[in-house]
Structure of Terpenoid cyclases/Protein prenyltransferase:
Amino acid sequence: MNRFSEPLPSLARPAHISHAKHALARLPGSLVDLDASRMAIVFYCIGTLDLLGVLQDQTSETERASWRNWIWEQYAIGRYGTGFKPGPFMSTTSTNSGHDSPHIIMTYTALLSLSMLRDDFSRLNRPGLLRFVSSCQNRDGSFSNTPNGGGDSDLRNLYSAFCICSMLGDWSSIDVECAIAFVASCRTYEGGYGQLPSCEAQGGTTYLALAALHLAPPGPRPRLSTAEKAKSEHWLVHNQDPASGGFRGRTGKAPDVCYCFWGGAALRILGAHDKINAYAFTQFIAACQFPFGGIAKAPGQPPDVYHTYLSLAAAAMYAPRLELSARAYGQWEFGPFNPLLNAREETVRWARSHIPARRF
Ligand SMILES: [Zn+2]
């Protein structure tokens, strides 16, 4: 008997909910080693609760208000506009370290987290946000982490800039066509995309590139030719490991559950989601669950909030409904998911209706 025809293990919903809540409860403490990415951790934890459908009814209004306030405390107003910092740093006076500057990836994650928490965005300075995004764009079309070329310049920042413009419904502050040319320059002979031009194709950056191309407003030419699309699909489909059902990030590497998201979401965006084995895919995610909550990158590894969120998001896009019994189906059932912005459709609808400037 093929092991992929075996019953799917349960999704340990209560344990994953506790894992995310526990990580959120520790945030206000002194997790100094996590300072650089604290906003991202908040996003993964709140996102996990949102995906599991418990954020509005299994957390208190006091908790949600304290998480909203924590995010707004990271809102920075500077010479180059307004955005969100990664977290509260030890130094609040330094202006040269980049620590006090808004960060483009953290701004994208903060806006989505606030949308999950149903913030009214009355504190958002929209012109300031547009100015900040513009100040992060480089001459070659790429984007840096912080204004004026600060930090890395790669596809993660470009994707975040496109998500922010898409949520604002305003692309006027950036050069979209120059950014698209930068994305094209990261494409490789395999049909995937590297972090920068001439880099090896990788599942995460391929998702970022394809999502950016599909978020962008229509251009003079199609963003991808039919031949390019077919080649990307082929490379992505072949990154599903036939033995485990999981996805690899690069040719020849071991499967890792976060690539189930990056590869699976990229295929959803291309409309090629029926070309992979969804049952085997979900079996791999199920096998990465840690018995006491959280999901690890591979079976038998320790869990973390990043792999937990991304694997649940992947499962939300590929729950193999027809093959499951009614009971198992209920466990793996999720609300509709938006692969472009990486959040539930309901959350994306909230973002798109509350983040743009009000037109009276
Ligand atoms: Zn991973």
Observations:
- The chain has 14 helices and eight strands.
- Residues 256, 258, 297, 307 surround zinc ion (CB under 6 Å).
